[in-house]
Specification:
The protein has 10 helices and 8 strands. By secondary structure, it is α/β, with parallel strands linked by helices.
Length: 233
């Protein structure tokens, strides 16, 4: 089965993360390690998760001068992760050097994608930081920049996925956070779409956090998410 669901391990301790991993099937999902958990557990935690059979999306959103990001991406790739991301707003040179840093790995290199606009941001938030565009337009602009830099795809809200899929080929990967069912609280994600709609609109991978990680039976909820997208594979 193609694993389209990526479970976000947004926990305050390594122990909590492993407790969750003990309760979900690695054949049904991949997992995401973000800044909080990586800061707590470090590279060794990532290696332990991979040793348990899980593909890891290392969600550190690198954004710095090109040389620094390239070196960070190269270091991250040595962990054996499945996917790494950077911020598209870091610019063309930064993304190109990050891509070049992975080339010596050949077919073993991880996917490299770029964050467009954080799903917590709305038009008024962009205005506050000097971006004279709505989220959809800014996402599209940064996605084209990412494609030109040669990366594998982007992180985007499902609200922009339909537009991006109409603009980019199927092999340009769209990774969508903020996925919730109707019965799930939206939390701090402000541009939210359900799993079936996200896949129907063109998302390749769906990042799901609390609806699975806070569930009494996380593997059963994971199965529900997989069932919701199964018709659109």
């Amino acid at each position: 089965m193609e694993r389209k669901i990526v479970v976000a391990l947004d926990f305050e301790s390594s122990e909590q993360a492993f407790e969750l991993l003990d309760r979900v099937d690695s054949d049904l999902c991949r997992v995401k390690v973000g800044k909080e958990l990586f800061t707590i557990g470090g590279p060794n935690l990532v290696r332990q998760i991979i040793d348990r059979g899980f593909d890891v999306f290392l969600d550190l959103k690198f954004h710095d001068i090109p040389n620094t990001v390239a070196r960070a991406v190269k270091a991250a790739s040595t962990l054996g992760v499945w996917m790494i991301n950077v911020h598209a707003s870091g610019g063309m040179a930064m993304m190109e050097q990050a891509k070049e840093a992975l080339e010596p790995m050949g077919s073993d290199k991880p996917l490299l994608i770029a964050v467009t606009v954080l799903t917590s941001l709305l038009t008024e938030d962009l205005v506050q930081i000097g971006v004279a565009a709505n989220p959809e337009d800014q996402v599209s602009k940064l996605a084209f920049l990412t494609q030109e830099a040669g990366l594998d795809g982007v992180v985007c809200s499902a609200a922009e996925t339909r537009l991006l899929r109409s603009q980019f080929p199927k092999d340009f990967c769209l990774v969508t956070p903020g996925i919730r069912r109707l019965e799930d609280a939206s939390g701090d994600q402000r541009r939210v779409v359900g799993p079936a709609d996200a896949i129907l609109n063109g998302s390749n991978f769906l990042v799901v956090g609390r609806p699975i990680t806070r569930a009494e039976e996380p593997n059963e909820v994971l199965k529900e998410f997989n069932s919701a997208v199964a018709s659109f594979r």
